[in-house]
Design brief:
The complex is a heterodimer of chains A (314) and B (301).
Chain A: H1 2-41, H2 44-50, H3 55-64, H4 76-85, H5 90-99, H6 105-115, H7 119-138, H8 144-147, H9 150-153, E1 164-165, E2 171-172, H10 178-213, H11 216-220, H12 228-240, H13 247-252, H14 260-272, H15 275-281, H16 287-311
Antiparallel strand pairs in A: 1-2
Helix pairs in contact in A: 1-4, 1-10, 3-5, 3-7, 4-5, 5-7, 7-14, 7-16, 10-15, 12-14, 14-16
Chain B: H1 3-22, H2 35-66, H3 87-104, H4 109-123, H5 131-150, H6 158-161, E1 167-168, H7 191-201, E2 211-219, E3 228-235, E4 244-251, E5 263-275, E6 278-291
Parallel strand pairs in B: 1-4, 4-6
Antiparallel strand pairs in B: 2-3, 2-5, 3-4, 5-6
Helix pairs in contact in B: 1-2, 1-5, 3-4
Classes of the chains: A mainly alpha (314), B alpha/beta (301).
């Protein structure tokens, strides 16, 4: 009875796809709204003035920025994209993109709720910070022309009329009229959302497809060795594409089966890179840079996980 | 792409999410503690849609007022730009104007071609939203809405169990509950509560004779004989992407008569037994009542 089975599979696929989409879409919308309001109320001059020039400082700032912008891995992409249009240095944006989904109050709290105060919690925060900082630093040599996707690079940032200074160094755009400003921000947010949502849809389709076709046991059976367990958990994080605000509770399920270091790998790698965020990166960066953004954190997390497995019991 | 069209897409998304909430199928997809996020998203999409529609009206008003006056060549900002409008605004209007012109008058093939050139030309200045991709992009954004409305909503069932690690009679790899959480005695224990209790007790015989009345769907694979099936539920901590099946072995003489995926209410009592080489409590059924799927098909830890 091949037909019912196929139908069954399709039904499962649709349910998982819609599940990922419905779960992620509020976060993407929230990120787009933040981005829309940045567009209207934060000027390029302010970004240029506030952002550190030196790569190391920029990467440091980027890795910490999530404490101010609590976004998960879906919301972070439109915000990063908008800030790039406003002239944010490349290392800052890269570090922000990778770190913010973990280094923000919401995710730290949810990790605390799942694992309590312990090596998993501070390990997650510390290693995410380090890896985001390191990858951000590596991007100091990247030029905008070879980094950004065509849609973004073409961008002549809407550079507006003489800005009006407000407190805190934030510079208001010309829209002093709050109502007109809010309406423009909503339109900018909508444009951002429509731009990024297609990548979210493609990513969700792929993730749901993988989950429907590849049995979880195949991933889990990869092994319990010091290397293979880390690889298995990283692959799982990549395929599951769960929002970083809740992945700690999902990771909890694997505590008995996997070593703490591989759980840590799951919690550090998943928020940085998974199927749907990789798809969304394509809306910001050129393909080669997206590859770097996947492979650099992947290799660092792998090395770290294996090292911890071999040397520290945790 | 015209503002009006984008506004409609936003309305479609708002409607889709709202309909999931009102028809109760939202819980087929996500854990109920995230429902408020979906609700906020409905409001957000609605607000953005209003923003687009307001913008569309503004553009229409300007076009009517402008009377065919060209809305400024690319690059030269509209000199009369009113306060509260930036160049970005003007660009948007320009693109919309192009779009409107194209929609407005039926044009000869020649003209059509010229219009396209113009559109491409404008495109550089139009915030980089690629017009060439916009159709595909729009279709992709609407795909969840279309799939959601066309394919009848169904929660994960027996067909999805086989692809996942199913925890039978214990929770080692299942979506583990939050530490310290114990079922409140006030409500009847569900499948997850029992499995948690089994995990804590270690000794499968500790539950011998205890009665239970449990809801779940029927799952079977080659490990089950004619006299047993798995009473199963999915545990979802975030959305169905992390759904993990859990189950309890039920012993009943007419197990083979129950259809796969059928929801059943089983009442019976526990007896220590063995499944697939593991000792565990097994539910010996007294009464099995076929039933419909509950409103919340998943268990939320």
């Amino acid at each position: 009875m091949p037909t019912p089975l196929l139908l069954e599979r399709f039904q499962t696929f649709v349910t998982i796809f819609l599940g990922i989409f419905i779960e992620a879409v509020p976060f993407l919308l929230a990120g787009s709204l933040v981005s829309g309001f940045i567009e209207v109320f934060v000027s390029r001059e302010a970004v240029l003035r506030l952002a550190p020039r030196r790569a190391a400082l920029a990467a440091l700032a980027g890795a910490s920025l999530g404490m101010v912008f609590p976004v998960c891995e879906c919301g972070v992409v439109p915000v990063t994209r908008r800030l790039y249009r406003k002239g944010m240095p490349i290392p800052l944006g890269i570090a922000f993109l990778l770190a913010a989904p973990v280094i923000n109050p919401v995710v730290i709290l949810s990790t605390y709720a799942a694992f309590g105060w312990g090596p998993i919690l501070w390990g997650r925060v510390a290693f995410t910070f380090l890896i985001a900082f390191a990858v951000g630093l590596l991007f100091r040599w990247a030029t905008p022309q070879e980094t950004f996707a065509a849609t973004l690079a073409l961008q002549p940032t809407a550079e507006p009329l003489p800005p009006r200074r407000l407190a805190l160094g934030i510079v208001a755009g010309p829209a002093v009229d709050l109502r007109a400003g809010a309406s423009r921000a909503l339109v900018a947010a909508g444009d951002d959302f429509l731009d990024m949502a297609r990548y979210l849809v493609v990513g969700s389709l792929l993730a749901a497809g993988m989950q429907t076709v590849v049995p979880q046991s195949a991933l889990l059976a990869i092994g319990a060795g010091p290397v293979t367990s880390v690889v298995a958990m990283m692959l799982l994080a990549f395929v599951l594409s769960i929002c970083s605000t809740v992945d700690a509770f999902v990771a909890l399920a694997f505590v008995g089966t996997f070593t703490p270091a591989s759980i840590l790998a799951f919690l550090v790698f998943g928020p940085m890179v998974d199927i749907k965020s990789t798809a969304m990166f394509l809306g910001v960066f050129q393909r080669r840079k997206v590859l770097y953004l996947v492979l650099l954190p992947a290799s660092m997390v792998l090395l770290l996980g294996v090292f911890l497995n071999l040397n520290v019991g945790l | 792409m015209a503002y009006g069209l984008k506004g409609l897409v936003m309305l479609a998304l708002a409607y889709f999410l709202f309909s999931r909430i009102t028809n109760g199928t939202l819980f087929f997809y996500i854990n109920n503690r995230f429902a408020w996020l979906t609700f906020l998203a409905v409001i957000g999409f609605f607000a953005v849609a209003l923003g687009y529609l307001a913008q569309a009206r503004l553009v229409r008003q300007m076009l009517e007022g402008g009377h065919g006056r060209r809305l400024g060549a690319p690059g030269s900002p509209d000199g009369e730009g009113r306060a509260g409008e930036s160049s970005s605004h003007a660009h948007g209007q320009m693109a919309a104007a192009t779009e409107d012109r194209r929609l407005g008058a039926p044009s000869s093939p020649d003209e059509e071609g010229r219009d396209h050139e113009e559109a491409d030309h404008d495109h550089e200045y139009d915030h980089g939203h690629s017009h060439r991709l916009s159709r595909v992009g729009l279709a992709l954004v609407l795909l969840p809405v279309v799939l959601g409305l066309l394919v009848p909503a169904r929660p994960l069932g027996a067909g999805a169990v086989g692809n996942r690690e199913v925890s039978v009679g214990r929770l080692s790899t299942a979506a583990a509950p939050r530490a310290g959480q114990v079922a409140s005695p006030a409500r009847a224990k569900n499948l997850l509560d029992w499995l948690m209790a089994f995990d804590q007790a270690q000794d499968p015989a500790a539950f011998d004779g205890q009665p239970a009345n449990l809801l779940g769907f029927v799952y079977r694979d080659s490990r089950f004989g004619d006299d047993s099936f798995l009473l199963s539920r999915f545990v979802v901590s975030c959305c169905v992407a992390d759904a993990t099946p859990i189950g309890l072995v039920v012993r009943t003489p007419n197990a083979s008569q129950l259809a796969l995926d059928q929801w059943v209410q089983v009442s019976g009592h526990f007896q220590a037994g063995e499944f697939d080489g593991h000792p565990m409590p097994i539910l010996v059924a007294d009464v099995i009542t076929p039933t419909v799927a509950p409103n919340q098909p998943y268990l939320f830890p």
